[in-house]
UniProtKB/TrEMBL annotation:
Protein name per UniProt: MFS transporter
Residues in Major facilitator superfamily (MFS) profile domain copies: 9-565
InterPro entries noted in UniProt: MFS, MFS_dom, MFS_trans_sf
Record keywords: Membrane, Transmembrane, Transmembrane helix, Transport
Location in the cell: Cell inner membrane
Coiled-coil features, chain-numbered ranges: none
Transmembrane segments: 48-66, 78-97, 103-125, 137-161, 167-183, 195-215, 239-259, 280-300, 306-327, 348-372, 384-406, 413-432, 444-465, 477-503, 541-561
Membrane topology designation: Multi-pass membrane protein
The organism's place on the tree of life at top rank: Bacteria
Major localisation: membrane
Lineage: Bacteria, Bacillati, Actinomycetota, Actinomycetes, Propionibacteriales
Organism: Aeromicrobium duanguangcaii
Length: 569
């Protein structure tokens, strides 16, 4: 019965992860309309970057802390809390009226969405023995990757009948519905706490007031009487209106209620002990370090440099914060990463492999559509995206098969073989020309490349969970995700820089326009073809660099995850 309940909880967590993963890609379609709502034009695309990087920052920066809290507090409370946070972020984004509020909503969304993964992976380790974890890990990996396929389709369907706001309203509704379903799986001692109706009423009124402040519905703001609630008491800020002040008052009343009620809506009792068992200062230092690294690479313009313009400030901040984290780890009574928890070679080896997997994978996600636009679909973004689908659809298939194969093949060789396959496919892609995507063989290569990445997901996760104690499974899973995401950020910047060097080298060899076109228009076919070939040379260099990253990951997997008695049946 206990395992059956865990399976039900895992199913809910899988749906939540898939939905959060889809949301990552939905925003790409909605971005132009979101920019308009924030007062930005198409020419100001760089200013809109925080809409995406804000989500990424939330997704990664606090993940280790969330993973550690799930080890101390339990999987269900953290999963439920993350879904509520995701819903709150969705509501703020949907009601956002300018760039700061939209970015804030996306940041909160990222915290909730990213926080779902560590407790879910840890839940699998809690429920299934090592020799049977492969399949559930593969299924979770498949669901997560399936979001990248379903997300754009989901977003297109919503935008066909509604606006970008509807995407996030729907996110909030689904997140809260899954959270409510998860309440059935709360530990028995928590289900008898009772229900704080007054607390719910107070927080509901406060939320409604603040939400109306953000949305400023015309039917209310233009009313003779109701419009008075939207007139600022002083200055011109909407956050100093009577309605906003009422929201603050009800929010304060809610906090007082939670501090004094015998059975508060928020189960805050017990969190003090968890805070004492967690190095919050160390967690803060690691969050600052990760945040600085993420902003450094996520806000960079690869056409100009690997790092953002503010890297001269951000990287020293990251270095100092990381040094502070290491210092706290040696001095704190209860460090964020418990001493000795990642000393096993396959444990830290899995994190290293995950970093290089991310560095290689991002090249496919970004540059395959770019190659398609350059060669077969110069004016059709949809067709270019469909080329990437050839790669993406094979990822979940490989993830499920990789989970099944773990019963028969050790993690190290399986991961190495999978990533070697992906690396070999990248080498083939590194030799593609302008006609390559027109042949069926390109579909085989793209599918095989995606299949290899999918095949590696479950064994890397399983190796990490097998060689860490149950008390740190949430934290270890969080570090694995962080390594992959940081690898993607650094990888895309480094590979794009390598590609641009190849592009400039190819352009330098192109004869002058006059000599190619014999004095005719600069739009002559010979010059256009030469510039296209230079672009192809750039992407060939990127794919070759991705192959190197994949081969490094394969070698590390073979060397570091090689214990033969780990997963054999």
């Amino acid at each position: 019965m206990k395992e059956l309940a865990s399976r039900g909880l895992l199913a809910l967590a899988a749906v939540a992860i898939g939905f959060a993963a889809a949301d990552t890609y939905v925003v790409v379609l909605a971005l132009p309309d979101m920019m308009t709502a924030a007062g930005l034009t198409v020419a100001e695309l760089q200013r809109a970057a925080p809409i995406i990087s804000g989500f990424l920052l939330g997704y990664v920066a606090v993940l280790p802390l969330i993973g550690r809290v799930s080890d101390l507090r339990g999987r269900v409370p953290v999963l439920t809390g993350c879904l509520v946070v995701f819903a709150i972020g969705s509501v703020i984004t949907a009601a956002g009226y300018d760039l700061p509020t939209i970015v804030l909503g996306r940041l909160i969304q990222g915290i909730g969405g990213g926080g779902l993964i560590p407790p879910t992976l840890a839940l699998i380790a809690d429920t299934w023995p090592a020799e049977r974890r492969g399949m559930p890990l593969g299924i979770i990996g498949a669901v997560q990757e399936l979001g990248s396929v379903v997300g754009p389709l989901w977003g297109a369907a919503i935008l066909a009948f509604g606006t970008w706001h509807d995407i996030f309203w729907l996110n909030a509704a689904v997140g809260l519905a899954i959270a409510a379903a998860m309440l059935r799986h709360r530990p028995a001692e928590r289900t008898r706490r009772g229900f704080d109706l007054w607390g719910l009423i107070l927080v509901g009124i406060a939320s409604a007031c603040l939400l109306l402040v953000m949305m400023e519905p015309e039917s209310l703001t233009t009313g003779v009487t109701s419009g008075l609630a939207f007139l600022p008491v002083t200055g011109d800020s909407r956050w100093l209106t009577p309605l906003a002040l009422a929201g603050y008052a009800f929010l304060v009343a809610f906090v007082v209620r939670q501090a004094t009620a015998a059975r508060p809506l928020l189960a805050w009792r017990g969190w003090g002990e968890i805070a004492r068992e967690t190095d919050l200062w160390g967690a803060a230092a690691l969050t600052v370090a990760l945040g600085a690294v993420i902003v450094t690479f996520a806000s960079a313009e690869p056409e100009q440099a690997v790092l953002a313009d503010d890297a001269v400030v951000l990287l020293p901040i990251a270095a100092l914060a990381l040094a502070a984290f290491v210092w706290r780890g040696r001095r704190a009574a209860n460090p964020l990463i418990p001493r000795g928890s990642l000393t096993a070679t396959p444990a830290w080896g899995s994190i290293a492999v995950s970093f290089f997997v991310g560095a290689a994978l991002i090249a496919a996600l970004v540059d395959i559509p770019f190659f398609a636009r350059l060669t077969i679909a110069p004016d059709d973004q949809l067709e270019a995206a469909l080329v990437l689908v050839r790669f993406l659809v094979a990822l979940p298939v490989g993830a499920v098969l990789g989970g099944w194969l773990l019963r028969h093949v050790p993690a190290g060789p399986l991961t190495a073989a999978a990533l070697t396959l992906s690396g070999a496919c990248f080498l083939v892609m590194g030799s593609w020309d302008a006609q390559s995507l027109e042949s069926f063989s390109s579909t085989v290569v793209l599918a095989a490349c995606g299949f290899g990445f999918g095949l590696a997901l479950a064994p890397v996760n399983a190796a990490l969970l097998e060689h860490t104690a149950a008390e740190v499974h949430g934290l270890a899973s969080a570090l694995l995700v962080v390594a992959r995401m940081v690898g993607m950020l650094i990888g895309i910047s480094a590979l794009t820089t390598i590609g641009l060097r190849a592009f400039r080298g190819a352009v330098a060899k192109i004869p002058s326009v006059e000599s190619l076109c014999d004095g005719e228009s600069t739009a002559c076919g010979a010059y256009t073809s030469a510039m296209r070939d230079a672009g192809i040379a750039q992407l060939q260099a990127v794919f070759t660099g991705a192959a190197v990253a994949a081969f490094i990951a394969a070698a590390l997997a073979l060397l570091l995850l090689r214990r033969r008695d780990i997963f054999s049946s």
